[in-house]
Prior knowledge:
The protein is α/β, with parallel strands linked by helices.
Amino acid sequence: xxxxxxxxxxxxxxxxxxxxxxxxxxxxxxxxxxxxxxxxxxxxxxxxxxxxxxxxxxxxxxxxxxxxxxxxxxxxxxxxxxxxxxxxxxxxxxxxxxxxxxxxxxxxxxxxxxxxxxxxxxxxxxxxxxxxxxxxxxxxxxxxxxxxxxxxxxxxxxxxxxxxxxxxxxxxxxxxxxxxxxxxxxxxxxxxxxxxxxxxxxxxxxxxxxxxxxxxxxxxxxxxxxxxxxxxxxxxxxxxxxxxxxxxxxxxxxxxxxxxxxxxxxxxxxxxxxxxxxxxxxxxxxxxxxxxxxxxxxxxxxxxxxxxxxxxxxxxxxxxxxxxxxxxxxxxxxxxxxxxxxxxxxxxxxxxxxxxxxxxxxxxxxxxxxxxxxxxxxxxxxxxxxxxxxxxxxxxxxxxxxxxxxxxxxxxxx
Length: 414
């Protein structure tokens, strides 16, 4: 299918489109005029993580081709909680926590869309907080049938697994549909985008716009990106991969992308970088050891886009020092310990890895040691007593966990 709109053509060839409504009609409109489109974000934390990157890149490309990107911050809907794709109810946050999160996250959006031009940040608390419940039920509730809601996968899967689904969460679909309707009426927004788990919510909004505003609207969903174990991308065993450098160092952010699974490198280059497609095709053709060049390019480009060029250059330099030049870079994670604590064995390899935050669980650290997953000064650590006293002859002890994580214990000899 050939698309005339620059935006739709761009996101199609990069693999962003999973489901769509009447895309040919949308393409016809977007090839002739500029539109407004939006994506909603729950504000459940003070930073977004890489699981939001697909949606942020969609907003970026919409803005890049001179359309209006609206980042909708769910100050109101986060008070309720989205059941889509969840097995359990989310923790309910209070408004002050949500407001703090919004304040912290605003800077992230400015990396992806031009807020100085015509793209926007809006908070649905502004209109949802003023809703009269009786009027809302009459005007909106009467337009969305329970029968249809029960057919949507996000609801059906939850009920099939006999997981509790509260009336509070059931209202989320009504509220999100109303958000789209409000943005359509007040911002002339005709497009909602989101992950594939939002398909039902998007369809409800389109239907509500048709019924209340008597106008046409469109929806596009993108595929959900998962880790190798099938879990949503963005969260690992050791925690979320945050976009905010205050919560995750530039080096660790870079290394997350540098250690991408071989099978995912090409897809991630298309989705998460702005490299020309012709260049991505060349990188995607690399095999065996050469694929490491593509991984490094992926890591550099994403870090530059999200954190900045200076930060990407620094992360690349640290990575090259450690893995190519075998130089112990002073900027990697370190922890200082008095040599007496190491000598009398009150500070062990388990304490070291825990303090360096290379692995969270002490039991997991022991498992890694037994499976030869831990190295000291590039040699497998095999001591049964977990002591590191035999390494006191140097000022620094380099600790590696797997191929990805490195830290340094600095020995204080005073």
